[in-house]
UniProtKB/TrEMBL annotation:
This is Prephenate/arogenate dehydrogenase domain-containing protein. GO terms for molecular function: arogenate dehydrogenase (NADP+) activity; NAD+ binding; prephenate dehydrogenase (NAD+) activity; prephenate dehydrogenase (NADP+) activity. It comes from Ceratopteris richardii (Triangle waterfern). Residues 76-358 form the Prephenate/arogenate dehydrogenase domain. InterPro entries: NAD(P)-bd_dom_sf, PDH_N, Prephen_DH, TYRAAT1/2, TYRAAT2_C. Keywords: Oxidoreductase. It comes from the Eukaryota. Pfam families: PDH_N, TYRAAT1_C.
Amino acid sequence: MEILTKRHFFSVRIENNGIPRASLCRSVLPYVKGVPFSCKRAMRKIKGLEIHAIDAAQPFDFEGKKLQEMQRQKVLRIGIVGFGNYGQFLAATMAKQGHTVLAYSRSDYSAIAQKMNVQFFRDADDFCEEHPEVIVMCTSILSTEAVLQALPLQRLRRNTLFVDVLSVKEFPKNLLLQVLPLEFDILCTHPMFGPQSGKGSWKNLPFVFDKVRIGNGMREKRCEKFLDVFRSEGCRMVEMSCEEHDRHAASSQFITHTVGRVLGKLGLSSTPINTRGYETLLDLVDNTGGDSFDLYYGLFMYNINATEELDRLELAFDSVKKQLFSKLHNVLRSQLFDRPPEVAVPIPSHSLEKKEINSAEIVKFNGTADVIEVHDYNGVLDRATSNS
């Protein structure tokens, strides 16, 4: 059997042993380098190029090719806008999973990106011309609007998926819907962990998401592939509307940051007799103190529920304070802690007068005043005026 390939002028003969033999065809050579020759003259020209090699056909690895194709379909081209601490934190896991990760930031993080196998860009046009399938906004809450407005969206593909990972959700949802063209997909997410809490593992850590605007077909599959970045790490996936998220976040995340910062102002430090509860408070101070004030301010400014929670926290503190003072035996406490070293001064009974007062008010006697005020636990002020 002889098979002729006119493009390369080869003939392949199957020998008796089943091994194909390839040689230059001596019967089909109409042209060489565009110049017509007779077959006899052409054969003299290329006689030195005759092939007399025997080679076995290489088996085709269909299973390996199929596996490679499946792996390729799982890989995303992810662009990260804002390559600070949090952007680097997410990029490390995405790159480890085999995704192609691009990063854009105004600051120079090229050395860090190179170590993480991430392509880094300082020019927004160059970044967008790489056509990432997914763009993850890892900017601060305060700078998100300005950064988004400055991106050259016309250089992106029309069906690009935009993802935000901010700690508030209603604000970025409304912003993305307002700025992005209708062809762009929008996925609002909040990984409820960061470089500190997610340092070792993401297993069982909550990941909140809301599919604000996702197209059909391949665009839906692309969204699921991005969510698989977190599913595959063991995150607890919670689908929730942006509005519901902000209600829960105000009474949990914002309060946590507020209490942590208040305790930080006290200058708490470790002691030789730390209890477990106190260790927890120290950890809270460390975790919240590691975040920038801009993040904390963003939690307050861009969550409509935060002001109400701050008022509730203040009322709760006042309530506890009043409860303590209402149970305080002021006279006994004054005798135990505020008694001066001098001999007690007798109080003339004829000059006693009583007056109703605020039980939370305490006046100390220093041993030299002409007026002595002592509060009893019934809220009655005994006032004695010394005769001088």
